[in-house]
């Protein structure tokens, strides 16, 4: 930033001027001199301060880019951990259900042996046990994929056992005005806002081309010999001022200014588009969380207890031969699906909260 605000390096010109080519005698002619000149150019208008401001904006962009990247990483790590925890819990549910379905297979076989069941019941029970194993394999594959994604960020720690309980993630408690302020200050939006500032400086920098470039020069010419009166010839001191005249602006300056203004307008549009996108993501995250919370309450209060009761009732009915074995299998599968869906709902709520925390600009 200091370098951008500094003047260009001065130029030193050292020359032996007006040497007579017949004798190359330094004191033969009165205009022969050893000349040292110092030239300093001044940039057009406020170019120096504008370049310093541009450098400051670019430095700020780097800091904001780091913040944005950190927030994205936290969001990705949290989502991968939530998926891994969900798959671990579902895998545990399937493992816990395997003895129950094995017992149903034995029940179907014993009932068929004594003539109270059918071979179809045995085949159905064995098939569901096989499906349960296949389902566990698929969930285990998903779990390994989730751990692989997690290891990208935390390394070998991702292979360690996960906690038995899910850590609660508190959503941001913000008013509508606070949310709008957080979105405007979000790193993804702030980065584009700084791009707008940079392009504004570029426009002003382009406008500086309409102003002249000024140069100052001081030269000292040393002479030797004597004049016709016998006096020593005096040395010369020259002082000059140069400046250019930007007369033909249509070919260069006008086009550069117009191009900079177009880029400035594009940067403003990108910032507004990104802000609108974050607002849509915020509305979607709030809606997803609210709907999932309603479903979670319904599952915990009504669906899961009813599924457990229906499974127990179906098994009791089959033992007294008031219903067939198909109803028993269907009831227990429905109960298992309800427990798995409950874990998926909790994971969905947690991911919605992670999205809300990202939108609120929280990196922890």
Give a structural overview.
By secondary structure, this protein is α+β, with helices and mostly antiparallel strands. The protein folds into 2 domains: 76 residues, no CATH class; 198 residues, Outer membrane efflux proteins (OEP) (Up-down Bundle). It is built from 7 helices and 4 strands. Strands 1-2-3-4 form a 4-stranded antiparallel beta sheet, with no helix packed on it. Helix 2 runs antiparallel to helix 3, helix 2 runs antiparallel to helix 5 and helix 6 runs antiparallel to helix 7. It is rod-shaped and about 150 Å long. It starts with a helix and ends in a 5-residue tail after the last helix. The mean pLDDT is 84.
Please state the second-level CATH architecture of the largest domain.
Up-down Bundle
What's the N-to-C terminus distance? 32 Å
Order of helices and strands: HEEHHHHEEHH
Report mean pLDDT, rounded to a whole number. 84
Approximate helicity band: 55-70%
CATH class of the largest domain: Mainly Alpha
Question: What is the approximate shape?
Answer: rod-shaped
Radius of gyration: 41 Å
Counting DSSP E segments of at least 2 residues, the number of strands comes to 4
CATH topology of the largest domain: Outer membrane efflux proteins (OEP)
Question: How do the strands line up in the largest sheet?
Answer: 1-2-3-4
Total tally of structural domains: 2
Low-confidence stretches: none
**Beta strand %:** 5-15%
The CATH superfamily of the largest domain bears the name Outer membrane efflux proteins (OEP)
The tally of helices reads: 7
